[in-house]
Amino acid sequence: MEETTDRYARHHLIDWWDQKRLASARVMVVGAGAIGNEVIKNLALLGVGNLWVVDFDTVEVTNLTRSVLFRETDIGRSKAEVASERAKEINPAIQVKSLSCDLEYEIGLGVYRSMDVVIGCLDSIQARLALNRACLRAGVAWLNGGIEVTVGEVSYFASEEGACFECTMSPSMWEQHHKRFSCGGLRSDTEEAKMPTTAVVASVVAGYLVNEALFLLHRATEEPKEGLEPSQKLVFLLKPYRLDVYRLPRDPNCLAHERWEPLTIMPFSPQQITAKAVFEYLGMPEGILELDFDLLTHLTCLECGAVEEVLRPLEKSSSRLSLCPQCGTKARQPETICWIDKDSEIAMRPLSDLGIPEYAVLRVKQGGEETFAQLSGEYA
Ligand SMILES: [Zn+2]
Ligand SMILES: [Zn+2]
């Protein structure tokens, strides 16, 4: 028997395999739950060289039935951190970064722009919508995985062609999505219903997701051409067995299809620069910074008149904020802005005060002109 020291010797026996391509690949896994655990495990075993693991949650006891990377002693720790550590144990030759944060507000678009493929292992519509928009703007392909008890699905959304996740939203999905907000736009504290799932269906869907990611990563070197086409969705049933592939139609009215390019790379972090300075740097002194979200600026009590400054995204603000600490009534109303001009007081604040993250891409308009600028330089 001949012994080999090459960890990937069995991979090299596959004629279309390109281990070097995998070693240089940059893959972001969003969600380190049941599906994410299996996806991360597979990517690490395969030797995919650069992984990013995104999740803002912590490990709970109920995760242990479906999460191969978590142990009882991990309860209470960040899912992203634990999953990253375990991936490094599985394969010490790969780089794994954990991002214990909110994919929508805390990861700059420049991070997405640097990826080869993004794998969505999410369990909420809200998170999928946010990831979908980020990937379209960044021009990066993403795969969406979803599971129920014995049903799993994988969709492939290319940034340039075909349908996106938002195109596929049904009226009942929109209704479910909007239910999360109470009056005044503050977020209601009711959580989305938990899905009944098992490790079995999670591992099958993760197998398809990573298989598809392998095809995408190899596509640059032409072969193989198998796998899903853009806007195709694979759906399988485990009870009884069944597998179908559908084409998802593009919604001609979908507003999500916009690529945020070309862009100027700015060497300043959000701590170092204000909106006004951005306008000057871009040569757009009369510019307007369009925020991508409603920024809650003040809470004003309709009962006693007390005003509190609060700079945070409205969507991330709980309905509990309506309670006035001065008079004790639930009469506070949020005041929001969605753009900043050079004369506003907020234009003199560091962008980090407004919750704008590192590597964020800003959208600036002046007259009919629109431009994009990335903070913090290129993401490496
Ligand atoms: Zn769309
Ligand atoms: Zn009050």
Task: Write a concise keyword list for the protein shown above.
9 helices, binds zinc ion, 24% strand, 2 domains, Rossmann fold, 380 residues, six-stranded mixed sheet
Task: Give the gist of this structure.
With 380 residues, this protein is an alpha/beta fold. Helices cover 24% and strands 24% of the residues. It folds into two domains: 9-247, NAD(P)-binding Rossmann-like Domain (Rossmann fold), CATH 3.40.50.720; 263-374, no CATH class.
Number of domains: 2
Bound compounds, each kind once, are: zinc ion
| CATH topology annotation of the largest domain | Rossmann fold
User: What is the tally of helical segments?
Assistant: 9
Order of neighbouring strands in the sheet with most strands: 3-2-1-4-5-6-7-8
CATH architecture of the largest domain: 3-Layer(aba) Sandwich
What is the string of helix and strand elements? HHEHEHEHEHEEHHEEEHEEEEE
Low-confidence stretches: none
Output the CATH class name of the largest domain.
Answer: Alpha Beta
Average per-residue pLDDT, rounded, comes to: 93
The percent range for strand residues is 15-25%
Radius of gyration: 22 Å
**What's the CATH H-level homologous superfamily of the largest domain?**
NAD(P)-binding Rossmann-like Domain
Class by alpha and beta content: alpha/beta
**Overall helicity:** 10-25%
Strand count, sense and barrel status of the largest sheet are: 8 strands, mixed
Choose one word for the global shape: globular
Distance between the termini: 43 Å
